[in-house]
UniProtKB/TrEMBL annotation:
<protein>
    <submittedName>
        <fullName>Branched-chain amino acid transport system permease protein</fullName>
    </submittedName>
</protein>
<dbReference type="Pfam" id="PF02653">
    <property type="entry name" value="BPD_transp_2"/>
</dbReference>
<keyword id="KW-1003">Cell membrane</keyword>
<feature type="transmembrane region" description="Helical">
    <location>
        <begin position="225"/>
        <end position="242"/>
    </location>
</feature>
<feature type="transmembrane region" description="Helical">
    <location>
        <begin position="34"/>
        <end position="55"/>
    </location>
</feature>
<keyword id="KW-1133">Transmembrane helix</keyword>
<dbReference type="GO" id="GO:0005886">
    <property type="term" value="C:plasma membrane"/>
</dbReference>
<keyword id="KW-0812">Transmembrane</keyword>
<dbReference type="GO" id="GO:0015658">
    <property type="term" value="F:branched-chain amino acid transmembrane transporter activity"/>
</dbReference>
<feature type="transmembrane region" description="Helical">
    <location>
        <begin position="142"/>
        <end position="163"/>
    </location>
</feature>
<dbReference type="InterPro" id="IPR043428">
    <property type="entry name" value="LivM-like"/>
</dbReference>
<feature type="transmembrane region" description="Helical">
    <location>
        <begin position="277"/>
        <end position="297"/>
    </location>
</feature>
<keyword id="KW-0472">Membrane</keyword>
<feature type="transmembrane region" description="Helical">
    <location>
        <begin position="67"/>
        <end position="91"/>
    </location>
</feature>
<feature type="transmembrane region" description="Helical">
    <location>
        <begin position="249"/>
        <end position="271"/>
    </location>
</feature>
<feature type="transmembrane region" description="Helical">
    <location>
        <begin position="98"/>
        <end position="117"/>
    </location>
</feature>
<feature type="transmembrane region" description="Helical">
    <location>
        <begin position="6"/>
        <end position="27"/>
    </location>
</feature>
Length: 328
């Protein structure tokens, strides 16, 4: 029983780490309309930045500054945010599919750098010995998992409240205006490119934070962790939860990761070890079927922006005041 509870805490921690990335994507796409399919690159930048800042000194590799974990997380946000801003300045003049192709190319470049720059990133061997929060509790998995879950929940709550505040602020209203009608927003004196670069940078910083948290939660990173399948997972999480809703981004992350992990466990039980490599593709099939069902039932996602239905009272014509009463 205790093992099941411990695994539940581990599962929820992993799902909530994904929700950080989904929240960053929701800011870029759901709020601003920026089609980013290179988010795996920003997650990798954050993970490697925090790892280089916090790991102990290692011969033959740059970094090893042995700084506190919190410094690594802040550094990951700064570096990933700056990278997103630089990329945004260069690419956000592009639209829709052209922007998607460019951001995907950025993610591929980041992965290739991580794979080949061995003196910086460890190459295909990755970076190990990344300090983990509450490492002293590692011998007690239940306490260790719940302690990490508490940290992730607190940080996620801070990010969620900050994004909710930004969405309701004048800055957020400008982003929504640019998403809905760019010409109208520009006619009012708003710089479309300036605001989009800001949204792209903030979203990239949140993705970098997610990569850093995941790196310290696992204790090891490698280029194989940041392949295009990560981008597919996050986009499905956002679509299922509801584009434009921060609450939906979190709910979609937990739901999709539950189906992904559950289908993986199911294939390991139903298929022999020789067939499990091929059966792993059933995970993607399960996600695709779930996505089709949810979009048929809720086209806007679980918590997506749905038009509010007007009640019968609201639809009734308002009575016109009697002229005699008005005169009196």
């Amino acid at each position: 029983m205790m093992d099941i509870i411990g695994y539940g805490a581990f599962f929820l921690t992993t799902a909530l780490v994904f929700s950080f990335i989904t929240l960053g994507l929701n800011l870029q796409w759901g709020l601003t309309g920026l089609f980013n399919v290179g988010l795996a690159g920003f997650v990798a930048i954050g993970a490697y930045t925090s790892a280089l800042l916090t790991t102990p000194d290692t011969t033959g590799r740059f970094g090893g500054f042995d700084l506190p974990i919190l410094v690594g997380w802040l550094g990951a946000m700064v570096v990933a945010g700056l990278a997103a801003a630089i990329i945004g300045v260069a690419t956000l003049r592009l639209k829709s599919d052209y922007l998607a192709i460019t951001t995907f190319g950025v993610a591929v470049v980041v992965q290739l750098v991580a794979l080949n720059a061995q003196k910086l990133t460890g190459g295909p061997f990755g970076i190990g010995f990344i300090p983990r929060p509450f490492a002293s509790l590692a011998e007690t998995p239940l306490l260790f998992n719940f302690a990490n879950l508490g940290v992730v929940v607190v940080v996620l709550l801070i990010v969620y409240l900050a994004l909710e505040h930004l969405a309701r602020s004048p800055w957020g209203r400008v982003l929504k205006a640019l998403r809905e009608d760019e010409r109208a927003a520009v006619s009012l004196g708003k710089s479309a490119r300036f605001y989009r670069v800001q949204a792209f940078a903030v979203g990239g910083a949140i993705m970098g934070l997610a990569g850093a948290i995941q790196a310290h939660f696992i204790g090891f990173i490698a280029p194989d962790n940041y392949v295009p399948i990560l981008t597919f997972q996050i986009w499905v999480m956002l679509i299922v939860g509801g584009s434009g809703s921060n609450k939906g981004a979190i709910a979609g992350s937990v739901l999709v990761w539950a189906i992904w992990a559950g289908s993986g466990a199911l294939t390991s039980v139903l298929f022999s070890p020789e067939q499990q490599a091929r059966a792993a593709s059933l995970q993607i099939v399960a996600i695709g079927v779930m996505l089709c069902i949810i979009l048929l039932v809720r086209p806007g996602g679980i918590f997506g922006d749905m038009p509010r239905r007007r009640s019968a009272v609201e639809l009734q014509p308002k009575p016109v005041a009697d002229e005699s009463n008005a005169a009196s």
